[in-house]
From TrEMBL:
<keyword id="KW-1133">Transmembrane helix</keyword>
<dbReference type="GO" id="GO:0047184">
    <property type="term" value="F:1-acylglycerophosphocholine O-acyltransferase activity"/>
</dbReference>
<protein>
    <submittedName>
        <fullName>PCAT2 acyltransferase</fullName>
    </submittedName>
</protein>
<keyword id="KW-0812">Transmembrane</keyword>
<dbReference type="GO" id="GO:0005783">
    <property type="term" value="C:endoplasmic reticulum"/>
</dbReference>
<keyword id="KW-0443">Lipid metabolism</keyword>
<feature type="domain" description="Phospholipid/glycerol acyltransferase">
    <location>
        <begin position="69"/>
        <end position="155"/>
    </location>
</feature>
<dbReference type="GO" id="GO:0006629">
    <property type="term" value="P:lipid metabolic process"/>
</dbReference>
<keyword id="KW-0012">Acyltransferase</keyword>
<dbReference type="GO" id="GO:0016020">
    <property type="term" value="C:membrane"/>
</dbReference>
<keyword id="KW-0808">Transferase</keyword>
<comment type="similarity">
    <text>Belongs to the 1-acyl-sn-glycerol-3-phosphate acyltransferase family.</text>
</comment>
<feature type="transmembrane region" description="Helical">
    <location>
        <begin position="6"/>
        <end position="27"/>
    </location>
</feature>
<dbReference type="GO" id="GO:0042171">
    <property type="term" value="F:lysophosphatidic acid acyltransferase activity"/>
</dbReference>
<keyword id="KW-0472">Membrane</keyword>
<dbReference type="InterPro" id="IPR002123">
    <property type="entry name" value="Plipid/glycerol_acylTrfase"/>
</dbReference>
<dbReference type="Pfam" id="PF01553">
    <property type="entry name" value="Acyltransferase"/>
</dbReference>
Amino acid sequence: TVLQGIILLPLRAICIAFILLLAWLFASIATFRHCEKGSVPLKGWRRRMIQTTLSCLTRTLFFVMGFQVKVKGKIASLLEAPIFVAAPHSSFFDAIISALTGMPSVVSRAENLSTPVFGTILRSLQPVSVSRQDPDSRKNTVTEITKRALSRGQWPQVI
């Protein structure tokens, strides 16, 4: 059993790295030649690609790490709930919620967008970025979330 653990650990790490690289590839394809600033929502095949592939890859990633999540009840649609709240937001488990709800936009610090691999994946979710150096950032964030919530389905849900 200890030997199995020693053998399986590198295999899991390789699977996780492969899944992350696939997610990066699909995120890169979906955002290729799309407005970088996130002022225009992803539509059509780009949005469907993000919703289906990243959601599936994220679920697979957590399965490889040993998590299985079952949804009980009905997940609110974009038109029913343009803002989706995940609390207490204390760990990486928010990614499970994102995968189960169709990869909504997230609120994230602006510095996260420049992170290799993860930054590209995050950018494909069209986040509402918060800059800690900008004194108007709090007001701008509230304005952006409100704009997206009132867009009547043009933007994805915000988590």
